[in-house]
């Protein structure tokens, strides 16, 4: 879908591109939250493996991130993709995290999603013309330094990186989101082309990501054995035919019950499914060669 901003020929006001991108990002988060039954995750049925989250909380959290997504897009529209922009995005990302924690009463609902979607929103706003170009541009941004990133207490991701050497959310972004472009999006499209219902296509995309991802949420709570079991369990659902078959559905429900008992939540996979839904629906507005020539140059 092509998109722009300002006033159309007929004089009607069009939604500004940053607001359109923020809408698409929030919608992707909402759709991921509504998807059911998702193993161990919050969904329409309840909080999954979480005793501090439910669907209304995730929906409120998604809405609280809208201003951050819009401001991220605005910054990327006006600033070249170099360290200055990376640092501005870091500040906006941390502001978004504070807004999220305010509405959730301190629960980390969407930190990883804000990171992945924030980088992809910036990439599309900065002129990426398709999903692969967006993932590559997001990777370049992720790899830039942010001198204002607070040292503070190590995050869960940082702890398991030190302990087990796992890559985590930063590494996945720097690798240009292969689980999104090479796994989730192709799986979504193959399932749709085969006539599967949209919900089944999304569940299969999630399960395939789960079967491959080093999810630091799972590693933090379940260690390497927990992560191995989650990946094998998700792989088994797919080997049984996926969420749309009787055997695959039974395997999914079994995996869900096991994750709830072990209090393991594949939150990183949920974030990457939301990233795939964002790219799948993104409004593209590749910059014209003239706009690229006139884009502000890197100052550092
Ligand atoms: C680079 C950052 C993402 C920070 O990364 P780091 O790994 O240091 O920090 P974490 O706080 O651990 O957050 C990473 C979140 O990313 C998700 N995730 C996990 N593994 C992967 C993966 N392999 N690939 C992609 N994404 C992954 C995951 O998010 C989900 O889980 C969250 C709940 O996690 P947690 O708090 O650990 O949950 P609980 O176990 O429930 O906690 P307790 O109840 O037990 O206390 C949830 O948010 C999901 O979204 C990881 O949690 C980045 O955030 C950063 O540097 N931000 C600064 C701002 C910035 O620069 N922004 C720029 C662009 S906007
Ligand atoms: N549906 C979900 N359940 C739990 N954590 C999540 N983080 C992002 N989406 C989530």
From TrEMBL:
Q: What class of enzyme is it?
A: transferase
From the UniProt record, list the reaction(s) this protein catalyses. Answer: 3'-dephospho-CoA + ATP = 2'-(5''-triphospho-alpha-D-ribosyl)-3'-dephospho-CoA + adenine
* Entries under InterPro entries matching the protein: CitG, TriPribosyl-deP-CoA_syn
Q: What is its EC number?
A: 2.4.2.52
Q: Does the keyword Nucleotide-binding apply?
A: yes
Protein name as catalogued: triphosphoribosyl-dephospho-CoA synthase
Keywords, comma-separated and alphabetical: ATP-binding, Nucleotide-binding, Transferase
User: Record's Pfam families?
Assistant: CitG (PF01874)
